[in-house]
Amino acid sequence: MMPRLHGAFFTLFYKEVLRFWKVASQTVGAPVMTAVLYLLIFSHALEGHVQIHGVSYTAFLIPGLVMMSVLQNAFANSSSSLIQSKVTGNIVFTLLAPISHHEFYAAYVLAAIVRGLMVGVGVLAVTMWFAPLQFIYPLWILLFAILGGGILGSLGVIAGIWAEKFDQLAAFQNFLIMPLTFLSGVFYSIASLPAFWQHVSHWNPVFYMIDGFRHGFFGVSDVSPWISLAVGGGCFSALAVLSLNLLSRGYKLRT
Questions:
Q1: Where exactly are the structural domains of the chain?
Q2: CA atoms within 13 A on the CB side of 30
Q3: Confidence (pLDDT) at 190
Q4: Integer CA distances (angstroms), 245 to 32, 239, 248, in order
C-alpha cells in the first residue's frame, strides 16, 4: 500500500522546485546551451557522412541530447540540494519536520524529474528546428523521460547522502554519471560498435533509457522498448529501495 503524502511533502517539493527555478538561467538555461553546442559541433562534423536507422545524423542525435540533458540535470538537482543542505547544516530543519522518509524521497526525486523535464523540453524546443523529428510514439517519449529522470534523481539522492563534501560528489559525477551517459549511445548507435563493446553497452542501464526514448521518435531502436522499460523499471525499483533504506536509517544525515 502506497504511503499517503501530506502537507510536509508538498512543502518540501515546492521548496526543491523553487530552489532551482530561482536560478533558472544556471539550472535550465545553461544546460540547454550546452546541448545546442554539442549539436552544432557533432552535426557539422558528421552530417552527410553518417546515417543511422535510416534517419539523418542530426535527427538521430537530437533525442539523445534531450535525454542526456534530462538525466544529468535530474541527478544534479537531487544530489546538489542534499550536499548543500548537509554542508551548510540546514538539513537538520528538514529532518526535524514531521515528514516521513517516503515523503522526503518522493519530494526530492519528483523535483529532480521536474527539472530534468524542463531542461529536456528546452533542449527539444531549441534543437528540433535543426532536423525533422517524427514523434511516432509520444507516450514512449514521455514514459522514458519520466523513468530516466526518476532513476537519476534516485541516484542523486544516494550520492547526496553518501557524499560528505563537494569534491566527493564531483568524483561521483565525473567517474560514474558522465561515463554512463556519454557511453550510452547518445552520439552513436551501439550497432556500429565491435561485438565486445556492444556487449559492454548492454550492461549500461542508461543505454536502455536513451534507446527507448529514441524509439518514441523514430519507431526504431537497438533493442525492444519493452526490454528497455523492464530494465529501467528494475533499476528504478532497486535505487528507490536503497534510497529509502538509507533515509530510514538516517545514514550520514543524523549525527
A1: 25-249
A2: 10
A3: 85
A4: 34, 10, 5
